[in-house]
Amino acid sequence: MVNRKDLDLDASPAARFGQRLRQIRDENGWTQDDLGARMRCTGTHISAVETGRRPPTSRFAASADRAFGTGDKFQRMVSALQNTALLEGFQEYVRQELRAAEISLFELGIVPGLLQTPEYAAAIATGALRRGSITEQQAEERLALLAERQAALGRTPPPFVYAVLDESCIRRPVGGSEVMAAQLDKLVAFAELPSTVFQIAPFDLGERRAFDLPVTLLMLPDRSQIAYSESAQQGLLERDTRFVQPMLTAYHQLQAEALSQTTSVAMIEQLRKGTP
To answer: Distance between CA 137 and CA 27 in Å, rounded?
Structure first.
């Protein structure tokens, strides 16, 4: 078959759905157009779902089950996909983060996950649970994955981590005074590591701050660059250098404008002493 795209089964739940869809379609000897006709959609739509370019909907899954006579197999797969607390695209990002040689991150409002204490992370998850935005099981899923990501920073050799935090991250109280004090201590300890650079982007940067949303840039072992950003509904992993390079340039500009590591740590120590 010409131009048949291989699937990356580790990329996301949607990719695994697509792999299963293709497998059963092949077993039936149907083309994508054949299946599309049975599901009342186009072969192009089938192709997009099979290759993970378009996430499957509940309606699509129900139609696939009817076409294949698979009961509710595909509907259950979509239900599991939709009931995760992780944004679509985030699991693929984590897979790349776990092998990155360099991680460059910028965060607003809260301390980024890789730098959180367990108590701070639990407070964030509890807040989401109380708002009803996630279930208890989903909160546990988030915390378990975060622990795995943090543990991976101890691999040999460790990734080099550049962290620029907006000043709001250290001034916004989370989890009470004791939790916040321990979190600030962790940031100071992070700055002392030989494989990290830590900076605060102060409020008075104003319009000179390069980003208005959190962003993470990864450099992989082969020196290729990936950018990851999030909306409220979806995570976006960008590999195209036409889009990644401007973000990398903006990140370097942010680092140049942010406080030095020494001054950033001094700001945190002042906060720990109760000094404005």
So the answer is: 36
* Strands of the 215-219 sheet, one edge to the other: 196-201, 160-166, 102-107, 215-219, 225-230, 235-238
pTM of the model: 0.70
* Same domain membership, residue 74 and residue 182: no
End position of a domain, from candidates 43, 61, 82? 82
Name the domain count of the chain: 2
- Residue 106 dihedral angles phi and psi, to the nearest 5°: -130, 135
Rounded to whole angstroms, the Cα distance separating 156 from 64 reads 45
Q: Give the domain range for residue 68.
A: 13-82
CA 88 to chain centre: 9
Structural domain ending residue among the three candidates 22, 47, 82? 82
> Rounded mean pLDDT of 162-173?
97
Q: Strand 225-230 to strand 102-107: parallel, antiparallel, or no bridges (unpaired)?
A: unpaired
